[in-house]
Specification:
Strand content: 5-15%
Structural class: alpha/beta
Radius of gyration: 26 Å
Number of helices: 30
Number of strands: 18
Largest sheet: 8 strands, mixed
Length: 669
């Protein structure tokens, strides 16, 4: 295997072994925002400890085989672990998955399949990774066996109709397991895909068609064939015309259900032995101790808050200051209620020690010698219980520090301030009618009371990464009161004196990062779909994993602490003219906006995007449009062409990142 083939072979192996039905079923947040399961797992899911299939537990595999740490444990098993005798353990969500899909029905993917020796091929065949050789075959349900064809339609005629409307390129992109297996896409759809609910072409979603046409669902007929034969002529709707916001609301789970699911997941985590906390108690010659809290392990996750903490941790190391970071062992949609119990993760000076009972953390800190200056920074309290947080800070001797306004969890359990995760709400008064109608209404008192208690007990400076974020916080009638406030941006643009090179051909329009609903992914995909065949435009998406079925070319890029400029460089290299940053929520800061502007791309954003809109207006970096209709009108009329690199000739900038809390420690002394 050539070195250049390795990433593609790994991806093919993952795509084939990954179980998207399991992933969507047990992780409600993925289904709720409409994210691609495989893309989410590859980009962030494995880092969050999420399991890719009922038969594989990421956490159990890492516990048994620590040598797999630093990368995706599932990929490690598929590439080499199986051949070295590494045994996978079932996911802790397996039984719940089986219950949800019907109890006694056991999908083939619920059991691990040990790879067989690679067969000797008599003729050239596509090269397939060894673990795939023995994965379960696709179900074979011949069209000839379907008794529910429309009257007078033969099997051959049905096949010809489907073939005429089928899009093989879309199918292979949307379903990488079919591509990895080297199967003919049309044959796969006819034999299996239509019965599995797979979509045959862009714009036709089988599940939507069946939902809005229950008589078709009852008939058992292939929904695409029904639409071709009768539904199209009858003017049948393809889906409920609720818009993507309506679909988000329709798929909402209650806050109580989400919290209950998180509590069940937390109960499955066993605490590690207290002796692993010995570094917290050891004598230290460090210049001080800095304690931080966030919603996850910043050493293993990718995202804006994680990059901020990585920069903070590196700065502390340079100054010789010990760094203790505390995070919930499992993701949590809100703060934890008083009296709840869950293991907490601990990172010490950049090394994850494990997950521990809070009592053991307190004992370890109690043995630490006092004397060195101790500061604190709260980056997120999601998954934390406020009493435990205050006890840990007291044991560490930390009372003065910073509260970072990365989101608005201090105002509401809906930390993006989006009513029912669909539209900006502006943080209305707690208990008001505008608050009670939202799915997050029941959790608001928990968040407001906990954050008020935090600000009352500690000497905290509220640090906003933008003036727009601080203005939103200050305008909220229930906002907790901080001892002081300060604006400290995460980055600034530094002109380079070099101007963007003009691209050739169509206007290149990009979406940056994770394809999630609140970042505007549905708006981008609708735009790209609508203008798919328009020669004036090319649509691309830049991110670490492809979004199968997306009507845009994928450009692979991953921003890390070691390569913080990767996105800006990729944007410049691809000659991106326009970046669609249509966030539905009030962004407190946006690295993507800085990366786009630094690379010479014009920004198109909407009025609800918080600091993206403020940054775009203040710097003349693009346009803030009033609504989505105006966005589509820009492309329909061709007015958007005025934002091309060729017309604008923008200056390329460097991005200078802040040192986060390290920049502000002197003011705390």
């Amino acid at each position: 295997m050539g070195q250049g083939d390795a990433p593609e072979r790994r991806r093919r192996a993952l795509a084939t072994a990954f179980d998207p039905v399991f992933y969507r079923t047990v992780y409600d947040d993925i289904a709720r925002v409409g994210a691609d399961p495989f893309g989410h797992y590859v980009e962030t899911g494995w880092r969050e400890g999420r399991d890719p299939a009922p038969w594989f537990s990421v956490s159990a595999y890492l516990e048994r085989h620590p040598e797999a740490g630093g990368g995706d444990p599932f990929a490690h098993y598929l590439e080499r672990g199986w051949s070295e005798g590494c045994e996978p353990s079932p996911s802790r969500h397996r039984e719940r998955f089986l219950e949800r899909i019907g109890g006694s029905r056991r999908p083939a993917s619920c059991e691990p399949v040990l790879p067989a020796p690679e067969p000797v091929l008599q003729a050239p065949e596509p090269e397939i990774p060894e673990p795939l050789a023995s994965l379960p075959g696709l179900p074979s349900v011949p069209v000839e066996a379907d008794p529910d064809l429309p009257a007078g339609l033969t099997r051959e005629a049905a096949r010809e109709l489907i073939a005429a409307g089928f899009d093989p390129a879309f199918y292979l992109s949307a379903y990488p397991d079919v591509a990895a297996a080297g199967q003919d896409p049309l044959e796969h759809y006819l034999l299996a895909g239509q019965w599995e609910g797979r979509d045959p072409r862009p714009g036709f979603k089988a599940a939507d068609y069946l939902e809005v046409n229950p008589d078709v669902a009852a008939s058992g007929m292939d929904p695409f064939l029904h639409w071709l034969v009768a539904g199209r002529a009858e003017g049948r709707p393809l889906r409920f015309e609720l818009g993507f916001r309506g679909r988000i609301v329709a798929g909402l789970a209650t806050l109580e259900a989400r919290m209950a699911a998180a509590a069940r997941a937390a109960a499955d985590i066993s605490a590690d032995r207290p002796r692993e906390l010995a570094p917290l108690s050891a004598a230290s010659k460090a210049a001080g101790l800095h304690v931080t809290f966030s919603h996850d392990d910043f050493t293993k996750r990718i995202g804006g808050v994680q990059l901020c903490l990585q920069a903070e941790s590196a700065g502390l190391a340079r100054k010789g200051i010990d760094h203790l970071h505390v995070f919930p062992a499992v993701p949590w949609p809100t703060l934890r209620p008083a009296g709840s119990r869950a293991a907490l993760g601990v990172v010490w000076n950049g090394r994850t020690l494990g997950h521990f009972a809070v009592g053991d953390i307190l004992k370890a800190l109690g043995k630490r010698r006092a004397g060195a200056r101790t500061t604190l920074a709260v980056h997120s309290l999601l998954g934390h219980e406020i009493g435990e947080t205050l006890n840990i800070l007291a044991a560490a001797g930390a009372r003065r520090g910073l509260f970072w306004l990365h989101d608005f969890a201090g105002l509401c359990a809906g930390y993006h301030l989006m009513r029912d995760e669909a539209r900006d709400c502006g943080a209305p008064p707690a208990g008001s009618a505008a608050c009670r109608v939202c799915v997050f209404g029941p959790g608001r008192d928990l968040h407001l009371s906990a954050h008020r208690r935090l600000f009352e007990a500690l000497d905290l400076t509220l640090v906003a990464p933008s003036q727009a974020a601080l203005d939103t916080w200050s305008a909220a009638p229930d906002a907790p009161v901080a001892a002081a406030v300060q604006v400290h941006p995460h980055a600034r643009l530094v002109p380079s004196g070099r101007f963007a090179e003009a691209g050739e051909g169509p206007l290149t329009v990009a979406f940056l990062g994770m394809p999630s609903a609140y970042k505007g992914w549905p708006v981008f995909t609708d735009l790209a779909e609508w203008f798919r065949d328009d020669p004036r435009y090319r649509f691309v998406r830049l991110g670490s994993a492809a979004a199968p079925g997306a009507p845009a070319d994928h450009i692979e890029v991953s921003v890390t602490a070691d390569n913080p400029h990767a996105m800006r460089e990729a944007l410049d290299s691809a000659r991106v003219d326009v970046a669609i940053l249509w966030s539905l929520c009030r962004e407190t800061f946006s690295f993507a906006a800085y990366e786009a502007a630094a690379a010479g791309a014009a920004i198109l954003t909407g009025p609800d995007s918080g600091n993206i809109a403020a940054f775009t207006r203040a710097g003349g970096h693009g346009l803030v449009l009033p609504d989505e209709a105006s966005l589509f009108a820009q492309f329909e009329s061709g007015t958007v062409q005025s934002l091309s690199r060729r017309v604008r000739r923008p200056e390329i900038c460097e991005i200078e990142y802040s040192g986060m809390s390290v920049d502000l420690l002197e003011a705390l002394s």
